[in-house]
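Reply to dn_fold:

You asked what the input looked like. This is it:
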Amino acid sequence: MKTIATIFTAALLLTMSIYAQTGKKIPNPKTGKVYPVQKSEAEWKKILSPLAFEVMVNRGTEQAFRNAYHNNHEKGIYVSAATGEPLFRSEDKFDSGTGWPSFSRPINARVVAIITDKSHGMVRDEVIEAKTGLHLGHVFNDGPRDKGGKRYCMNSAALKFIRKVIRKNSALKASRAGYPI
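and this is what came back:
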């Protein structure tokens, strides 16, 4: 068994060396897939906050109820903390009671991918960013039935929120109609 592990490790290192020398992109070790956006851990550390790095690169989880967006009710979109890619809309966000921001669907089915996560003695569907392969959260089949039945349970640290800006004319009309701005 030890010999097989040694051979596998040597083959993996040789493959990585060949990819590095030829300039080809290296497959993600977890999924075996090559993602369009690839960066080294050092590069991701420069871009991401320490918590976002832990969640997205190391596939960690932030604390429930102690994160930026679980209780955010503003209108806008949620984008990837790594790339700025739009991922979710506030219109699809709902309170799941779990302590993490939950959505009934992504903004576009192609911006995320679902892979099998067998960590922590469980089998779950992991949600990753399609461009990078970075961890976002998990998806479950206990979401609102009238919205498709999915609950995309995301880590706030993997997201950035962009608030919807109300145009001046819209705000003026709302003010004249008696709505507070």
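The first strand starts at residue 76 and ends at 80.
Hope that clears it up.
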